Batch of 2 targets.
Target 1
Amino acid sequence: MTIELTRRTLLRLAGTASLALAAAAAARAEGTPTAGAGTIAATAPGFAGSTPIRCGAIGLRVRDLDRMSRYYQSVLGLAVISASADGVTLGAGGVPLVSMEARPQAEFEPRNAAGLFHTAFLMPSRRDLARWLVHVARNQTPLTGFADHSVSEAVYLDDPEGNGIEVYADRDPRLWRWEGERVVMGTHRLDVDGILGLTDTSRNDYASAPTGLRIGHMHLRVGDIQQSESFYRDAIGLDSTSRRDTASFLSSGRYHHHVALNTWNSAGAGSRDLAKTGLDWFSLEVADPALLTAQRERMARAGFAPTTVEHGFESTDPWGTRLRLVGV
């Protein structure tokens, strides 16, 4: 399989005819303006997980546990950490990342409800992203778009029950451009050839996820941006890194974003129906015990009533999505 054949395969899997149209699809996925191709060079991994607060794991309510588990294993290369008749936990390098709870009678959560927009899985390196791209191309995995976001290079797809997924690699944070407290992010055509040039496209050597694969950020559908910021920024203590009328991006330690919030399809959404499928909970990890204690006090003062869970506490956002802050 040549590089050119792989690029055509990826475009076909994304249901588009050109890199520009694939970037436009990714722009719809991230709500960022499109522009020409970027020229910034490769990544230095690890920044997303080195900040005072970082993404941990997610919990999903699923109708078809076996099918969903097989998808995350075969497409992302996650390994089974624990399993029962009612649920499974998958991860990479022995670290739990995705827990699924079987809800076989549940209705699917509509895409105009508050909830999960996508879970973004961060590859340790650009070469790992290249190896994964060959993997999905050779396995004919449907994609929904791919793009260069200036700070990162990203590919989008949906799992069998409609939960959005992003797989991406960060660029070296020293190459990110900041304008004051705002990081410059855009949506450009992805340099597929440049990425694939880092690996052997004639074979699939992505047998399992790299041990350093982690969730880099969470992107949520919400009903109101200002109300969502009152929880994720003011109560949780994340910093704003970019904001528009219909989207907000927040992070810890000047990462480009650990949490994104949008109202593109969900403006005015009410409380989620927790009997339906979709995101049940997600966690943010806090390395400093003193910070974790301070965060609990901060949430209590903001009126969000944290309750104790293993290694930390949890509260619910204004639409019923559970957020856990846990020590590591």
Target 2
Amino acid sequence: MKTSHLVCTAAAAALALGAGAAAAQDRSGWPSSFTIGTASQGGTFFVYGSGVANLISEELGVSGAGEVTGGPMQNMALVHTGEAALGLTTLGPARESMEGNNPIAPGLAMDNVCAVFPMYETPFSITALSSSGIEQISDIPDGARIGFGPAGSTSDTYFPAMLEELGVNFERRNGGWDDLGGQLQDGLLDVIAFAAGVPVPAVSQLEVQTDVNIIEFTEEEQAQIVDAFPVAAFDIPASTYTTLEEPARAVSMWNFAIANCDLPESFIYEVTNVVMSDNERMMGIHRSAEATTVENADKNTVLPWHPGAARWFNENGASIPQDMIHGG
């Protein structure tokens, strides 16, 4: 029995050594550190991306952090050039960037950016102070001062055009979500038009400090925007904010995590595994991660998949076609 135990122990040790060698070999070409391009502080991208960076660092032993950026458009540029290994983007700005219509570098097709995993839908929602008397979009006064988030963000790219489509005349203001929330509370803005995963941290903070109105689209307004822009109908659940007593009509656009396509397949495979293998842990980072699931991989119809991410998804119930995989 003792000899048998020694043999088994030796075999186990040999397997462990072999596994360790394979793991070491598999890390060839891995970055020694990484950043994830997020957006401004006070927005969901920053909370979600910084949390994912910390999670990857803990699980894979590679130093990483979330980086404050201008949002989806800038993240496409940073990841394309390799200045950021990973980033977060929205599929509308992603398509424009791939087609050479990114305002950061007009004419440059940002085609070295690959999808890694689905994040969540970004609802487009509007917030005003209750004291303003603004309860619906038609109440927004002529020349209202509206904060649309950082310049070049998803909000700033699409929301002004959406409100113009609905006949709203406004003064356009830009800034980080925390800053704009403070300006709204101080009476320097009339409205904030958010495109961010819910709950938006800046709105949740405002609810604690003052009374706010979450302004929904009417059915007619929602249908008009869906017809005119690359968005889908969406209901913000009543449980999202204490202010809401019932779901609020909105529209939404999908967000995906992205990576530079030149990163090693093994690295992105492990990154995808860390994020996708425990949804409860992801929801601890931000509640919107409830949508970070295998089932939502098919929402990407824009970006090529990184081979490492595609391999993980195809091993775990998704069906990513070969012609949607970078280099495939």
